[in-house]
Specification:
alpha/beta; TIM Barrel; 4 domains; eight-stranded parallel barrel; three-stranded antiparallel sheet; 17 helices; 16 strands; disordered C terminus; binds manganese (II) ion
């Protein structure tokens, strides 16, 4: 790979998944991995195979399905034999694979976490890189908490790891402590003081505790790093990782300055952002750079005037370059199948024929309920039909009754494949609570509601309401999302989706909080 190309290493499925409440099942991880392949990332860190049987299974499934499609599939391992072997075996079926081993090097981690001295750290790192190299040509080594490691010791560890066979050396700011000029100095120091540094790619992995993850990553790139580890929407531990979409668009928009490229198809950025947000339930703030709802909104009159004269007066990126879809009026009842298919493709969605027909029927039904159908409505229809695991129960009918002086009541009918429909009713504090209670009576799943949000997908009183729910069941968190012009129906569908996931969950994962970099 040429030196003006920055390798984009996505860790949404590993570091991103470590965000509280963002754990995903194998089907969900496969769906995101597919979107990352289409996006054009160079490396997908698919998980931490030793962490649990569920993690192992997901990494293996991704390796099998996408291991010859372009990106390297990467598995994380501590510097322990069983970790490395487990990662190697999860990745075994991938043609393009990488093992990523890490070991903390800062004095605070050496003393309190590992209880190892400097020579022991070096010996362990060297031995582990060699073991990984025996299983896989492509080996990445990370000195965890590098940003707080003494520079002379960091240089020594990096040199020995490269000599042992590491092809990428990643310099993580595990705790989000670095600042841009400090981090530039760290990477520059390695470039100048590690004799064999040219034999490996220098990588960066920054956390956002001070809001500097992207700035620090760019500083590292300026100092010579040629791989950036990042996540979609900046998902990740605590305040998150560097946001992939921000890194990529900064390099592209300021190519006059950096003179660097990536392999990312930027038109897919907003689509992947929506997918990750919908699967993890982690909503994107409205004013988030690149992918937020307001990222391209011009409100001030003087700006709007400038925009009408010449877009570049106030616009440094074109919304279409990141696949941004606002509330554009696009279709109505008479638009027809062909126009609808065009619009779906324009929105970056590819549907098989059977799914397309279902979504088209939903579109016609929606046109009967609201006059104007916007891009955001269409995307919600697609998401309703095409995501995730097949649902065990489907909502066949519902009825609610509520009002001042009345007892809120809900009646629900669910169908399950090959079974007669089941009906039940419940009361609640309000119609939505009653609906949730009735769903729990039928499914026999009793969950704790952790979060419930409704938002309007577009403008106007007739707009669809999108409901997001987060439930906890048996110490696992599940998300459901649905949209409808009737928010009680959307609530019922979203809650049922989360209950379906809880029912399908046979993941044997155990929580593992101890280590990651
Ligand atoms: Mn991390």
């Amino acid at each position: 790979m040429s030196s003006d190309r920055v390798i984009i290493f996505d860790t949404t499925l590993r570091d991103g998944e470590q965000s509280p409440g963002c754990s995903m099942n194998t089907a969900e991880k496969l769906e995101i991995a597919g979107a990352l392949v289409d996006l054009g990332v160079d490396v997908i860190e698919a998980g931490f195979p030793i962490a649990s049987p569920g993690d192992f299974e997901a990494v293996q499934a991704i390796a099998r399905q996408f291991g010859d499609r372009g990106p390297k599939i990467c598995g994380l391992a501590r510097c322990r034999e069983e970790d490395i072997d487990r990662a190697g075996s999860a990745l075994n079926d991938a043609k393009n694979r990488r093992i990523h081993v890490f070991l903390a090097t800062s004095s605070i981690h050496r003393q309190y976490k590992l209880n190892m001295d400097k020579p022991e750290i070096i010996a362990k790192a060297v031995e582990s890189v060699k073991r990984a190299k025996g299983l896989c040509d492509d080996v990445e080594f990370s000195p965890e908490d590098a940003a707080r490691t003494e520079l002379d010791f960091l240089s020594e560890v990096v040199e020995k790891a490269i000599a042992a066979g590491a092809t990428t050396v990643n310099i993580p700011d595990t705790v989000g402590y670095a600042t841009p000029s400090h981090y530039f100095h760290v990477i520059s120091h390695l470039k100048q003081n590690v004799p064999n540094i040219a034999q490996a790619v220098i990588s960066t992995h920054c956390h956002n505790d001070l809001g500097l993850a992207v700035a620090n990553s760019l500083a590292a790139v300026e100092a010579g790093a040629r791989q950036v580890e990042c996540t979609i929407n900046g998902l990740g531990e605590r305040a998150g990782n560097a946001a992939l979409e921000e890194i990529v668009m900064a390099l592209r928009t300021r190519s006059d300055y950096y003179k660097l490229t990536t392999g990312i198809n930027t038109k897919k950025l907003c689509g992947v952002s929506r997918l990750v947000s919908s699967i993890t339930g982690m909503t994107v703030q409205r004013n988030k750079a690149i992918v937020g709802q307001n990222a391209f909104a011009h409100e001030a009159g003087i700006h709007q005037h400038g925009m009408l004269m010449e877009r570049t007066t106030y616009e440094i990126m074109r919304p279409e370059d990141v696949g941004f879809t606002g509330s554009n009026l696009v279709l109505g009842k008479h638009s027809g199948r062909h126009a609808f298919r065009d619009r779906i493709e324009h929105l970056g969605q590819s549907l098989d024929d059977a799914t397309f027909e279902k979504v088209f029927d939903d579109f016609i039904a929606l046109c009967d309920k609201k006059k104007n159908v916007y891009d955001a409505d269409i995307l919600a229809l697609v998401e309703n039909r095409s995501t995730e695991t097949p649902d065990r129960w489907k909502l066949a009918a519902f009825h609610t009754s509520a009002g001042s002086g009345a007892i809120p009541t809900a009646t629900i009918e669910l169908v399950e494949d090959g079974q007669p429909p089941v009906r039940d009713a419940a009361i609640g504090d309000g119609p939505i609570d009653a609906v949730f209670n009735a769903l729990e009576r039928i499914t026999h799943i009793h969950a704790r509601l952790q979060n419930y949000q409704v938002r309007s997908l577009t403008v106007g009183k007739e707009a669809q309401g999108e409901v997001l729910v987060e439930i906890e069941h048996n110490n696992h968190v599940f998300h459901g999302k649905a949209a409808s012009t009737d928010i009680i129906e959307a609530s019922a569908r979203a809650y049922l989706k989360a209950l379906n996931k809880a029912a399908a969950n046979r993941d044997t994962r155990k929580p593992l909080h101890a280590q990651h970099e």
